Amino acid sequence: ISKRNSKIVIDASAKGYMLKSEGFSISKNKISFDADVFLEKIEAGKKVNLKNIQFHGNDFKFLPKAASSLKALLLFMKENENVVVEIEGHVNGPGQKNKKSYQELSYSRAYAVKSYLIEHGVSEDRIQSEGHGSNDPIEKNDTPEHRRLNRRVEFVILQK
Predict the structure, then answer these.
(1) How far apart are the C-alpha atoms of 80 and 92, rounded to whole Å?
(2) Residue 4, Cα to own-chain centre: how many angstroms?
(3) Nearest to 128, CA basis, from 106, 157, 99
(4) Which of 1, 80, 92, 127 is the least buried, fewest Cβ under 10 Å from its Cβ?
C-alpha cells in the first residue's frame, strides 16, 4: 500500500463462468469505488491467476490475505460441480536456474491450495496440483514488485 493509493483485489464468479481475480488501485481518500468485472464462460484451457494467494517467505503457509481468494476459489468449485482444475504453483527464483528446492516449494504451495479445497468439501478427483518452480515467470525478476508477481498460484480448467 502506498501513501496515495490502496491496492485491492476483487474475486468474482458466477455459475457457468470463470473465476476472475482482478487488482485495482484506489485513492485512499475515496469514499466509494465502482468497478466493472467481466466474466468469461468456462472453457477448458483457461487459466486464472489468483492474485491474493500469497505465502510466508520460503514456506507454503498462507498469508492472512489469501483467505478471500481461497474462499472465492472454493465457491467457484462448488458452483461448478463438473469442473476439474489443475492448481499450479510458481516461485520467482531471481537470477538462478530452476532448482529442485524451487520445484518442491512451488509444488507444496499448489498442494496447500488443493488441500484447502478438499478440506472444505471439494472432491479430490476434481483437483490436480503441479509445481513449476521458477520456469514460467510472468515478469522479469528485476524489481521487488516483479518478483512478487512471479510468486503466484494459478489454476487451469482441465474439464468443464
Answers:
(1) 31
(2) 26
(3) 157
(4) 1
- Measured CA to CA, the distance from residue 160 to residue 158 in angstroms comes to 7
Among 39, 43, 16, smallest CA distance to 157 is for 43
pLDDT tens-digit series, residues 93-123: 776 777 888 899 999 999 999 999 999 999 9
Cα angle, residue 152 at apex, residues 129 and 95 outer, rounded to 5°: 110
Rounded distance between C-alpha atoms, residue 43 and residue 17, angstroms: 9
pTM, two decimals, is 0.86
User: Which cell goes with 5?
Assistant: 493509493
Cα Rg of the chain, angstroms: 16
CA distance 61 to 135: 22
Residue type, 92: N
Specify the length of the chain in residues: 160
76 closest CA partner among 126, 131, 14: 14
